[in-house]
Amino acid sequence: MDEKKNQYSRRDILRHGVWGACAAGVAGTGAILASKSRGQKYVWQIDPYKCTACGNCATFCVLQESAVKCVHAYAMCGYCDLCTGYYRPEPKELNTAAENQLCPRGAIKRTYVEDPYFEYTIDETKCNGCGKCVMGCTSFGNGSLFLQIRHDRCVGCNECAIAIACPENAIVRVPAEEPYLLKDRR
Amino acid sequence: MEIWRNDLNYRQGKIDSGVWAGVVITIAIAAGFCAVLFFDTTGQKGSGLSEEYVYDISQYTKIDPAMILYRQAGPTIAAGLKSTKAIAVRGEIYIAGDKEIIVVDGAGKAKRKITLDAEPTCITLKEDGTIVVGMGDALVVINPEGQERTRWAVEEANARLTSVALSPEIIFAADAVNGLIYEYDWAGKLIRTIGQKSDGKGKNGFVIPSPYFDIAMAPDGLLRVVDPGRHLIVAYTINGDREWSWGTATPAIEGFSGCCNPVNFAILPDGSFVTIEKGLVRVKVYDAEGKFIGVVAGAEQLEWTQQQQVCNTPEQCQSKGFDVAVDNDGRIYVLDTVKNVVRIFEKK
């Protein structure tokens, strides 16, 4: 009698097998999802095609000096002599005198290439991400100057203060493997 | 005795912990209210940056009403296209965009439609109604009935044709990417190229920072070419010899603003010029020698009264230069490539 009690019927084996398979499946799926979520890390970034350079990036970042900086897509740049991202709307002369420059911090460097072309580079130690040059370049030029969150500075807040303050919802989550949204010739 | 001790404790400044908790909660609630009322966490009150950080071109958007010499004639015409690119006029209005050419009359009534196999980038019309369309790097000749007669591709790599002009024997095509003007016969044979740096005629070539490079044939038989990076309109012979130029770089009304303007132009029957600028969108008239005459329309006349500029997004700012055409009666047809509409202006 006892021997009979200890024996499993085929039905029992089948029932326990199905339950075991289900449990293994659920556990496996969970493990896969968990490993995927651990592997895919996201960071904050500005979509340059939505950004209107409103200035909020300069003041709403939790850092004293914003993590947002102006960057330059050289492939798009016209290397203009009269660069509207570098010069005030009506400069007295096209030279590097401070009175002619648009950037309040003098964060853009103008370098002669060949007549009539000039290269413009951003000094990130001076740039505060106000976007004034971006407005000038976008309005009149071809938009090669634009704003990006620099990940050597960004502290990766769970809820980005600039994203909340962005009127255009231009700040988005991007995969950490490709943390920049760069402009190109369209 | 116990009562006396409690009373003494109270007098000595010891407060019940419940009172402390109440005070802390009250302060926290008050602080919360202050935060909601006084702190702008959503950025709706602006950046708080000083005036020095504000990009302000509003003073240049104001146009003296006495300078506006034209008024809109008739209703605004909806092109019926999602993305308009270019306009030409010869009796009827030809609007190129999407993968079509829409032909409408002066009242905006649709007459016919010509389907293309690619997006047009420029258009012009011959006296007999033949249509010449640029489509990226290809030129297509279409007969007045709308049938394609011939086409050929530009040999230069990455070419983008942004303007075509015609003489009885020659088709001129402007390539904004390579900064060159190609002269073809009507069979598509390349005759010569204008603007190469080494030819000694185009001087230092053309400076084209953004994808606008317009040309037109003037009544004096010379080709007019915009050198946008130098803010000039240059006269060339059909042999490619540079003759003279005019134009001034300034945001003031009499000049061309920004890095690279005008983006497009047309030539009136009397030889005067109608120019269109991007950035500060202004339609203006200059005489045949380049002297500023007056304004056709500014942002307000183009019904962009709420904004200084006619673009909302960076993409619109960069890629939506308006186009212009004129008819034999001196009417001016402005194609608003953002709203995809045509406005006709006539002299007051």
**Top-tier CATH class of the largest domain in chain B:** Mainly Beta
Rough outline of chain B: elongated
Identify the strand order in the major beta sheet of chain A.
Answer: 1-6
Question: H/E series of chain A, N to C?
Answer: HHEHEEEHEHE
Number of separate structural domains of chain B: 2
**H/I helix tally of chain A:** 5
Runs of chain B in which pLDDT lies below 50 for 5 or more consecutive residues are none
Largest contact between chains: A-B, 44 and 45 residues
What level of helicity do the residues of chain A show? 25-40%
Beta-strand content bin of chain A: 15-25%
CATH superfamily label of the largest domain in chain B: TolB, C-terminal domain
Average of pLDDT of chain A? 89
Q: How much β-strand is present in the residues of chain B? A: 35-45%
What series of H and E elements makes up the topology of chain B? Answer: HHHEEEEEEEEEEEEEEEEEEEEEEHEEE
Q: What's the multimeric state?
A: heterodimer
Number of strands of chain A: 6
Question: What is the rounded Rg of chain B?
Answer: 30 Å
Reported by name, the CATH topology of the largest domain in chain B is Neuraminidase
Query: How many structural domains of chain A?
Result: 2
Spans of chain A of at least 5 consecutive residues whose pLDDT stays below 50 are: none
The major β-sheet of chain B equals: 5 strands, antiparallel
